[in-house]
Specification:
By secondary structure, this protein is an alpha/beta fold. Helix content is 36%, strand content 19%. It binds adenosine-5'-diphosphate and ligand VHF. Pathway: Amino-acid biosynthesis; L-proline biosynthesis; L-glutamate 5-semialdehyde from L-glutamate: step 1/2.
């Protein structure tokens, strides 16, 4: 939330920015970015950095031909992360600013308690005027527990920190109508209120072997952050004084406006923490009740389910037309739910052999995803 125009700003620095298009870290670029972060702090803002670049730094240290397989990148990240944090530490120390390293994986955000621990830690660092430097813990992150890209990670961090703004610095001015690398005539899209399939279709992957996810993951990140009440800006990290310019809205960029009625409280965790493990497909009556009438999801309106999930895991709710409408924590596993699809809760005990709550996803455990200004309860 904005506190007297003093904002908490998460700045995500992509590999493309930190390498300036080369194969390894570009130190003058880091110097320049630290100077700008300090300018923001001197203006009273709190700064959190999500820094990519461990893999690139590792390449610079080893100076051997290393491929791009997962195992090779993990090895490079393990080598490079130390150098990366050392550089940030040295550069911020010129200004007498202390930094702290936080290496996260999805597992740190998935369980509510671990999520709260990470949140408290981040809050403490900011209280002590430390700049958190965050990256994914690539060296140990297996596919089951990793976020996979720092764009999504930075959106989760912005939610954790209750940030006002997320700035994604990359090697383009923002989201274009097509990948500008392949389409020189592509136009910059300056403002986005709501990300839809049409927009997602414009966002391609990374144009290089160094970046992860390209514009596609930046849109995923923006979508999550907007819903949680965070303004998001994508801008070009090589532009002079880009960070101050983003704040004064004078740089070419793409801005994604935060929602008028953002998801609040514990429900923010549902946007950022758990990974979805299954799908529930519902009839239009159920979708209408859940999306427009503030109802919980009942078994009666469920048409089918897909995937495997346990009780308490996150599942996604789709309409029969195939659009994602909501996500939330299920009270039954996929096997149990299979026994009661389409049934009234009065039949649950007989079908399941035990008593169970009538709601399959209780309203308190559910976030809507298909309305850009949904009236979610701010709890
Ligand atoms: N519609 C688009 N607009 C802008 N860039 C796009 C688009 N689609 C794909 N891209 C690509 O996304 C790249 C930026 O993402 P990425 O390489 O992952 O950078 P970073 O390391 O900054 O995360 C751009 O260099 C560009 O080639
Ligand atoms: N964690 C990796 C970067 C992953 C990533 O998302 O990269 P990028 O798309 O360049 O922001 C690293 O430190 O090299």
């Amino acid at each position: 939330m904005t506190k007297n125009n003093k904002q908490t700003i998460v700045i995500k620095l992509g590999t493309s920015v930190l390498t300036a298009g080369s194969q390894t870290l570009n130190k003058p670029r880091l110097v320049e970015l630290v100077r700008q972060c300090v300018t923001l702090r001197q203006a009273g803002h709190q700064v959190i950095v999500v820094s990519s670049g461990a893999v690139a730094a590792g390449r610079g240290v080893l100076q051997q031909q290393i491929g791009h397989s997962l195992a090779e990148k993990q090895m490079l990240a393990a080598i490079g992360q130390g150098q990366l944090i050392h550089l940030w530490q040295s550069l911020f120390s010129i200004y007498d600013i202390t930094v702290a390293q936080m290496l996260l994986t999805r597992a740190d955000l998935e369980h509510r308690e671990r999520y709260l621990t990470a949140r408290d830690m981040l809050t403490k660092l900011l209280e002590h005027h430390v700049v958190p430097i965050i990256n994914e813990n690539d060296a140990v992150a297996t596919s089951e527990i990793k976020v996979g890209d720092n764009d999504n990670l930075s959106a989760y961090v912005a939610i954790l920190a209750n940030a006002d703004k997320l700035v994604l610095l990359t090697d383009q001015h923002g989201l274009f109508t097509a990948d500008p690398r392949a389409n020189p005539d592509a136009q910059l899209i300056e403002q986005v209120t709501h990300i839809n399939d049409e927009l997602r279709a414009l966002a391609g992957g990374s144009g290089t072997q160094l970046g992860t996810g390209g514009m596609a993951t930046k849109l995923q990140a923006a979508d999550i952050a907007q819903r949680a009440g965070v303004d998001v800006v994508i801008a070009k990290g090589s532009e002079y004084d880009i960070l101050p310019q983003v704040l004064t809205q004078t740089a070419p960029s793409t801005t994604f406006l935060k929602f008028d009625a953002p998801v609040g409280g514990r429900k923010r965790w549902l946007l950022s923490g758990p990974k979805s493990t299954g799908k529930i497909i519902c009839d239009n009556g159920a979708i209408n009740a859940v999306c427009n009438q503030g109802a919980s999801l009942l078994a009666k309106g469920i048409v089918s389910i897909e995937g495997q999930f346990k009780r308490g895991e996150l599942v996604q709710v789709f309409c029969q037309q195939g659009t994602l409408q909501a996500q939330g924590l299920t009270s039954l596993s996929n096997q149990e739910l299979g026994l009661v699809i389409g049934r009234h809760s009065s039949e649950f005990a007989q079908c399941l052999g035990f008593e169970s709550a009538e709601e399959i996803i209780h309203r308190d455990n559910l976030v809507l995803l298909n309305q850009h200004s949904q009236q979610e309860v701010l709890n």
